[in-house]
Specification:
With about 400 residues, the chain is α+β, with helices and mostly antiparallel strands. It is built from 11 helices and 10 strands. The strands form 2 sheets. Strands 5, 6, 7, 8, 9 and 10 form a 6-stranded antiparallel β-sheet that branches. Helix 2 packs parallel to helix 5, helix 6 packs antiparallel against helix 7 and helix 8 packs antiparallel against helix 9.
Length: about 400
């Protein structure tokens, strides 16, 4: 028996990593890095981060929130029907394949899966698969409470991830202004994978894996089911800098998630409020994306060319520019006492004293400061700076 238990557990782990969501997420993350590198090289002839950065960060930034969410789901006893999980995964796959990650928020996927179950009940009530039937799902009972609360938790996780990690890997690119000049904008397109453990009621899993971990509460049996959950984010910043805009967007997403949980909790007494909570989350998340997009498109460029010097669009990691503490949007007025106005002037001025570089920099707040850095032979000859040109 102990060998069978071990085999079931190993099978569960194998099925998790062979899940189409997991495999497609890896491919999608590699694709995100590939297209980002092409975009950066098209604008600056050099990439900012390695092409596999998105894939390496796919799970590294999200495993802890996934663990916390899994503990909360199990601790509170939020059970979901396996049909909803399957629909959730199917919708997530379609969203990833579209590469349009403005619709990859988990609130959209959770709501589509929930209302998709309702559609199956209305127009496919005779459908059955290995004993599962949509008519058995009580969308005005337990599911009206658990799905909105879980979706709200996922929204809070999305907000935390956007606030903490989206700005650090925002990709600069050059675009044309209304006056025909070239200015810098920043695109953050991220994908996170959360290995979340769900509580599934009934003995459906035990029919295929007799020693699958289960527990009983009263007369009901429950199983633990690990599922890869995808969270996507896509936003362009041009009127604001990424480190200013994206933390605010993440905070707003977190607030929407808290509202969804608060409204969804009242479904315990009035199930229709669970449906309302999902709609509030979908509308709130869509309105946030729309408002931010309109504001960024209608505003001016935060990193636009100036006659007073060279505008920094980005800084290569571990470069002299990063060690100096330079930030995107700052303006380099002079290098080694020589006034610069373009990239060639910047390069020529650095060669005046290649071993010891002195900069006069105008910060985002308009404050002028002097900086200096020793440059070594292996250092990037432009201080590791991507500039507006």
């Amino acid at each position: 028996m102990s060998e069978q238990v071990l085999m079931d557990l190993l099978e569960a782990i194998a099925l998790f990593f062979l899940n189409p969501v997991w495999l497609i997420a890896i491919v999608a993350a590699v694709g995100l890095g590939y297209f980002r590198v092409k975009r950066e090289r098209r604008s600056f002839l050099v990439r900012l981060h390695p092409g596999l950065t998105e894939m390496k960060r796919l799970l590294a930034e999200s495993w802890l929130p996934a663990l916390i969410v899994s503990v909360l789901i199990s601790g509170i006893g939020l059970t979901v029907d396996i049909g909803w999980i399957v629909l959730f995964s199917a919708v997530a796959i379609l969203v990833m394949l579209s590469f349009y990650y403005q619709i990859a928020s988990p609130i959209y996927i959770a709501a589509i899966a929930f209302f998709g179950l309702y559609a199956l009940q209305q127009w496919g009530s005779d459908f059955a698969y290995r004993g599962w039937m949509p008519s058995d799902v009580d969308l005005f009972g337990n599911m009206a409470l658990t799905v909105p609360v879980i979706a709200g938790l996922f929204l809070i996780v999305e907000g935390v991830l956007v606030r903490r990690h989206s700005a650090a890997y925002a990709s600069p690119f050059l675009t044309q202004t209304n006056r025909g000049l070239r200015a810098a904008a920043y695109k953050s397109k991220r994908l996170w994978l959360l290995p979340v453990v769900f509580l599934v009621p009934g003995d459906m899993l035990s029919a295929y894996a007799p020693y699958w971990p289960q527990f009983t509460l009263g007369a009901s049996a429950f199983s633990f089911l690990p599922v890869p959950i995808v969270i996507g984010f896509s936003q362009v910043a041009r009127a604001s800098f990424p480190d200013v805009l994206f933390p605010k967007v993440g905070q707003a997403i977190t607030v929407i998630g808290a509202v969804v949980i608060a409204v969804g909790a009242f479904a315990w007494w009035m199930p229709v409020l669970g449906w309302a909570a999902l709609l509030i989350g979908v509308i709130g998340r869509a309105m946030l994306t729309l408002l931010v997009t309109i504001r960024e498109r209608n505003g001016g460029f935060a990193a636009a060319p100036q006659s007073t010097g060279v505008i920094i669009a980005g800084i290569l990691p571990e470069s002299p520019g990063e060690k100096l503490g330079l930030l995107p949007g700052e303006c380099i007025r002079t290098v080694n006492g020589i006034q610069v106005s373009n990239e060639k002037d910047l390069y020529d001025a650095i060669q005046v004293n290649a071993a010891h570089c002195r900069l006069q920099v105008i910060g985002r707040d308009g404050e002028v400061r002097l900086m200096q850095q020793v440059l070594y032979r292996h250092d990037h000859h432009r201080l590791g700076l991507l500039v507006v040109r």
